Structures are given as C-alpha cells and as structure tokens.
Give the backbone structure.
Amino acid sequence: MKILAIGAHPDDVEFLCAGTLALYAAQGHEIFIAIATNGNVGSPTLEKNEISAIRKKESIESCKLINAKLIWMNFDDEWLFDNKETRSVFIDAIREAQPDLVFIHNKCDYHPDHRNAGQIAEDCKIPVSVRLVKSNFEYLKKIPHMFYMDSIGGIQFEPEYYVDISSVIDLKGEMLRCHKSQEDWLIALYDEKPIDLMYKQSSFRGLNAGCKYAEGFRQVLTYPLVGSYKLLP
C-alpha cells in the first residue's frame, strides 16, 4: 500500500503516528509525510526564513529514518486557512502520494493549524478523485480511506482503534528528536520537552490498549466508506 500522513507542522506526524508509519515501513509499504506549514515562527531567536529552512532539513532527516518521502506544502505557520489555493495544494499533495490510506488531524486538536489541516484534507477526499478538478498531478482512480490521528496530549479524543507501537517506540523517539530546533522553544512555551510528552502519551494510550506503547485512531466515516480499521498494521 501507499500510506500518507498529513501534519500541520514539522514534527506533528512524528508525535502522533510515526510509530504506526514505522510499522508500515517495516512491512514494505510506501510512506509519504506531507507537512502543510513550514514552521517559520517556531524560534525565539531566528528569522522566519532561517527557522523554516532548518525545520525542512529536520523533516528530511526524520523521513530518512523510515525511508518516507517528504511533501513540503510551505504555507506560513499559524496562518493556514481553507481557500482555493490551500485546497489546490492539498489536492496536489494527496495526488502526488496516490495513497490507499491517509492519516489526518482530528477536529478537536488544540491548534487551529491542526484543525484546519485536518478539515481541509478531509474535504479533499472526494475532489482528489474527480477528473475535472485539475492540478499538477493525475487524479486518483480510487478514493483513499482516512483515519483521524490523536490530539496532542490526548485531549478531547477517544480512540476507536489502537496500534501497538512498543516494538518501534525508540524509532518514533529518534524521528521526533530530529526536530532539535523545537526542544528549547517548546520547553519555553509549554514547560515540557516534546519527547517526554510523546512518551507519556504513547504510554497512556498503551495502557488503554493493553500494551506498553500505542497510538490511537478513529476512522473518518464520511461517505463513501472505502476501507476499515483492518488497514491498520
């Protein structure tokens, strides 16, 4: 299969579903990670062009760890909105990957870029397969199935399905640690290292699932329903 995960910012996918992606990669599936914004406000000291270049490089290094292809949409961090231009770029990203399965942000996550990225991706589910919706890539012959990823901190999200990522938790951590530029910045904002929060959340979802570490998901149940939880590794 071809698997696409769409994150609002560099490091979102690593935090929320990198373990599941690592399992898919180990099974020989083709992995794509699409990032909507360039993270160009994520620094207390650097200018926008400097930090965005660093964050793209960090994302490339993370993708290498599971042999994933990076799709960089390059919208401004904190200013992701639903309009024709944004939808067109999202349609291109999905069509470039030609995925069987897409992971997206859920509607209750804390950050507006997360919520908007998830809603835009969900709203592109049908247009990506419409021939007369023109873009830079060929339209999909099959509508992809979609899953919502967990919320940061697990807040206001009740998973329906869990993936046991205990065997790849260290690889998930290694992918998240590629985003070195964010550690001090996020400690200053949230008073916690992102890697520590990731391990806590993965452990908590593991407790829910009856294993050591897990990631939680819900299906996007909009018509047409073309897949099921059985697509999860």
The helical segments are 12-26, 48-64, 84-97, 112-123, 169-177, 183-190, 194-209. The mean pLDDT is 95. Residues 48-64 form the longest helix (17 residues). The beta strands are 2-7, 30-37, 69-75, 101-104, 145-149, 161-164, 214-219.
